[in-house]
Specification:
The structure holds 2 protein chains of 2 kinds. Chain A contains 21 helices and 2 strands. By secondary structure, chain A is mainly α. In chain B, helix 1 runs antiparallel to helix 2 and helix 4 runs antiparallel to helix 5. The chains are: A mainly alpha, B mainly alpha.
């Protein structure tokens, strides 16, 4: 990626702006938005399902189409989280915390708008960062061994403190439940089967989509059905549709922080965009003057994770484009698609296939603009979904969610699991156990255990490497700060209150 | 409310203990893997049982809501179970038609003709959106025979 970056970018834009590639980018963004809006399928699954669309196309056009789907799905993922408390994928779980509360207060429009604008800003800055700091960052990411990954996962789990509501113990119970679910299935290092109760399907473990749909969508609708029968359910009002300048200015800092945080986390291997969205939410809550507003419809609680999740998508492309390494599920699909069109991802991708690499970067700029133009006018339409009578809206959401669950593996058992998890989520809500930490535990659990075991295998059973690596020490330190800071801040607030 | 919370915590203790029991049954294999496949689950089971026990003894409270379950909720859970069972057997369009029709009636739709008409339109629209627009295969089930 050396040399005249501006000249290369202009070359990329020239490729992306050709009429046929513009059309592919538009189709990709449109289909991606649709996939993102529909709960369950997610960016990686959606791209994998739509790879056949790329057959017979020029390599640059094929990748532009798939990148559009990727971007569109990341944009659209927030829609059902905000409107219906149904996260389309794991990274959108955090958006439900404040997005859905905003919708319940009649502010679904501003929530959807800030998610689209935040995604646009994050996507645009993310592509810029990808061009400028991509190669050195990719080399730095290679220093991330199993020990560092373990420390990152510990840091990730420390975020439970910001998702826990009033009781930290209940937050930990939810997180451990997620970690326990993550241990179900085949243990990769030994090939042993754990906690499957003889059910072959469980050998693959729990799919995050199935758990998210069950815990959030099914339990939400069961709760609403109960409110309907008690006569206490009210349709969300429509206070206003459009975002005010004040809302935007209030969220700008959160968007920028989420963008940079998300981008750098995105480069790292593992569940980067999930970690990025959870982390950016934690940072906003911790540094806010009014942390008590988070979880009750705070606009920055939507802006930060949505921006982080989109810039993490740019960061995740760095190892693929500069080293030829797919570091996430989505980039693995892109890797496969590149191979299918005759392009082998390698550290020389920019030299050997500049049309593909720079065309992709150019199309990301174009795609971002297209998605903003496509998504902002749709806000009014999406918000009107909430006017659908609840007796039709809820069964419809369940029917669409179940297609999402079914399409993941074509496994009827997943539908049963989603129902059981829905009942579990329903009772967890009643007893005030937070649901988001279950997803956090499930996503990070496997990576955490494998990284720790790999570290110990390499060191012959010694934990010393974890204490000798500066990256590990910094991450453990940050985890400690995240865990202890709320208590210290609470004590300080109590002391100040007593003094005054 | 505290009784409900204690019941929830007791279930947590049972879950933790049951998981711990399951973890103890995992064979100890440690060739080149000092931790093995058993240690992490043992830790999790122990932590779950301890935390749940602490909630059993000292309930945390929070925003607890009534523990009563409405008949509508129970009906919806049963319907969801049947829907999941029906999709691969009856096919997505027919199972969804039945699910939407019965589900909407359960949630308060009273009109005898609105239910079937809207259910038929919605199930067909969702099926066509997934299979034709997104190219995601869904089972046609008993309706496959009508295709010839």
């Amino acid at each position: 990626m050396e040399g005249n970056t501006l000249g290369h970018l202009l070359y990329g834009l020239q490729i992306a702006l050709s009429p046929i590639n513009l059309l592919y980018a538009f189709i990709g963004c449109l289909v991606g938005t649709l996939i993102g809006v529909l709960p369950g399928i997610g960016p990686a699954g959606g791209m994998a399902l739509l790879i056949p669309l790329t057959y017979g196309k020029e390599p640059a056009s094929a990748i532009i189409l798939l990148a559009g789907i990727y971007y569109g799905a990341m944009y659209g993922g927030s829609t059902t989280s905000i409107l219906l408390n149904v996260p389309g994928e794991a990274a959108s779980v955090v958006t439900t915390l404040d997005g859905y509360q905003m919708a319940r207060k009649g502010l679904a429009g501003p929530a959807l708008s800030i998610a689209a604008i935040g995604s646009f800003i994050a996507g645009s800055i993310g592509v810029g960062l990808l061009m400028l700091v991509g190669p050195p960052l990719a080399k730095a990411a290679l220093k991330f061994g199993p020990g560092e990954t373990f420390a990152l996962m510990v840091f990730g789990l420390s975020m439970v403190t910001s998702l826990s509501g009033k009781s930290l113990r209940k937050g930990f119970v939810s997180t451990i439940l997620g970690l326990m679910l993550a241990t179900v299935g085949t243990d990769l290092p030994t090939g042993l089967i754990r906690f499957t109760f003889g059910i072959p399907k469980l050998m693959e473990g729990f799919d995050v989509v199935v758990v998210a749909i069950g815990l959030f969508a099914v339990s939400e609708i069961l709760t609403c059905a109960e409110e309907m029968s008690a006569g206490s359910y009210t349709t969300a009002p429509l206070t206003r549709i459009w975002l005010s300048l004040k809302d935007f200015l209030q969220s700008l800092g959160a968007i920028l922080r989420g963008t940079f945080l998300g981008f750098f986390i995105g480069v790292l291997p593992g569940a980067a965009h999930v970690t990025a969205s959870f982390l950016s939410y934690t940072v906003e809550k911790r540094f806010s003057r009014h942390p008590e507003r988070f979880g009750h419809g705070e606009i920055r609680g939507v802006a930060a994770p949505e921006s982080a999740n989109n810039s993490a998508a740019c960061g995740a492309l760095i190892p693929l484009l500069t080293l030829g390494l797919p570091a996430s599920a989505v980039t693995a699909v892109l890797y496969g698609a590149l191979l299918m069109v005759g392009v082998r991802p390698s550290p020389f991708l920019f030299q050997k296939h500049p049309d593909v690499a720079w065309g992709l970067i150019g199309s990301m700029y174009i795609g971002n603009v297209m998605l903003l133009i496509l998504n902002l006018p749709l806000v009014g339409l999406w918000v009107r979904i909430l006017r659908t009578p609840a007796r039709w809206l809820f069964p419809m959401v369940l029917a669409v969610s179940f297609v999402g669950v079914y399409s993941v593996n074509n496994a009827p058992l997943d539908l049963l699991l989603a129902t059981i998890l829905g009942v579990l989520g329903y009772f967890m809500r009643k007893l005030d156990y937070p649901l988001a930490p279950v997803i956090l535990g499930l996503v990070l659990g496997d990576l955490l255990e494998q990284a720790l075991r790999q570290t110990l295998m390499i060191s012959g059973g010694s934990l010393l490497p974890l204490l000798q690596s500066p990256i590990c020490l910094v991450l453990f330190g940050l985890a400690g700060v995240v865990m202890i800071a709320p208590k210290l801040m609470y004590r300080k607030a109590v002391r100040l209150e007593i003094e005054t | 409310m505290i009784r409900a919370e204690r019941a929830g915590a007791a279930l947590g203790v049972v879950l933790g203990a049951g998981y711990l029991w399951g973890a103890l049954a995992i064979p100890e294999i440690s060739i080149g893997d000092p931790l093995g496949p058993r240690a992490f689950p043992l830790l999790l089971g122990g932590l779950m049982a301890l935390l749940a026990a602490s909630l059993l003894v000292w309930p945390a409270g929070g925003q607890l809501v009534g523990m009563g379950i409405s008949l509508q909720t129970v009906g919806l859970v049963l319907l969801l179970g049947l829907y999941g069972y029906g999709i691969p057997r009856l096919g997505y369009p027919l199972a969804t038609f039945l699910f939407l029709g019965i589900g909407s009636r359960l949630l308060g739709e009273r009109s005898l003709w609105v239910g079937p008409v809207v259910s038929a339109c919605l199930s067909a629209a969702i099926f066509l959106l997934f299979t034709r627009v997104l190219d995601i295969p869904l089972p046609l089930g008993v309706l496959a025979g009508l295709q010839g």
